[in-house]
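Entry 14. Ran structure prediction on the chain below.
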Amino acid sequence: MRVEARRRVRRDHVGERTARFGDVGRGRRRSHKREGQPRRPDNPGSTTDFTCDLCTAMPTPTDDGKTYTFKIVDGVKFHDGSPLTAADVAASWNEIIFPPEGVLSPRASFYRMVDKVEAPDPQTVVFRLKFATNAFLPALADAFSLIYPKVKLDQDPHWFEKNIMGSGPFKFVRYEAGQSITGARNPDYFRKGLIANVHTVGGIVFPASPLAATKEELEQLVGYWPDIEKSRAEAKRLLKEAGAEGLTLSSSIATSTSPTNTSAPG
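Output, structure tokens:
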């Protein structure tokens, strides 16, 4: 069964993003998208706590803080089925940090501390810095720095501007200008067991927006059905399909009262 994620968008071009050193698959311009790099986990405000999507673990820097060696997860594939290797990671970062003539990289200034990016073997990426700095990892975790296939960038350094190729949990299916982006579940996603059993996602748009769904459109989406019993039955079916039959949710609301003096002091 194909799983789809669909949302309304304002843009009239698809343009940008893909796999982060960390993750997924859409496509923008190179500042660059998402499957591939280090990211902030549960506490996005932290400047020191990072995890890595495409690498096996966050490395300990060597050479007095000037060398970072990342090991790439084995078996990762791009959405076209081709393997994602260290060569793709290095090529993508080199285009971000050292863009070729004619290619705009708005985030190149984030990486002034980087001297070179190398891929000595298919599973290893090495960042060599000009000087040690705590700003390097936060810059590396930028959500707009994505990983594209080296072969595509070698053929055309502007390839990512009009094409979409990621390695994350959903594949690009189609784009309707000014209407929606549709993605299908990626059965080859390398992080097994972490993909929700998503069928359709409806975007939430302010009612006054010309892109807002009509009542009739919303009622076609699970969760918006006017028949509550039908909705409950479908929710139970989806939970069973996802292997979470019997899942229950509970919440508690703490309340407090304090005496209120409604009389004026006399």
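The first helix runs from residue 86 to 97. Will compare against last week's run tomorrow.
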